[in-house]
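User: Watch each token:
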Amino acid sequence: MPRATLRLAAVTALAVAVAACSSGQPAPSAEPSASAPRPTAPRGTPAAPSERNSSMDIRVTLDGQPVNATLNGSPAARDLASLLPLTLDLEDFHGTERIGYPPRKLTTDGAPAPAAAKAGDIAYFAPWGNLALFYKDGPSASADLLILGHIDADTAQLAKAQRITIQTAP
């Protein structure tokens, strides 16, 4: 009987120790397994930062007047470029930006870190699916607002723009 009690006490102590130290996840091993997360980016993720930051010149007209503009290399900006040529009617929003709606929502996969919009920025507000042309600095950074590029236009021209046409540069 003492031997059975001793065995039961040892098993109970071992079970309590394992349960107290366990997170419910398998213990890490020194050898990577096929299912173990890798420190490098998995396949199918956005391009490396140097490619993500490469810019693309576009042709933009605001109310028929050409202005210089670029799109960044983010997945959302590349998705917008896939819709070109594109003409959108614009309306004012909060006395800060002009907004228009592309024919479909853009991807938000691989979005860069949030940044506050500045005057001249072309941005995409994911929840509503609208493009925004900021003629004043925008609100603080938000994960819902993706900066897609920049328009080199006077803020007064941006503030009253009624229509934008965006095309790929030749």
User: Anything to note?
Assistant: Confidence is low (pLDDT under 50) at residues 4-52. The chain has four helices and nine strands. Helices lie at 2-21, 49-52, 75-81, 155-160.
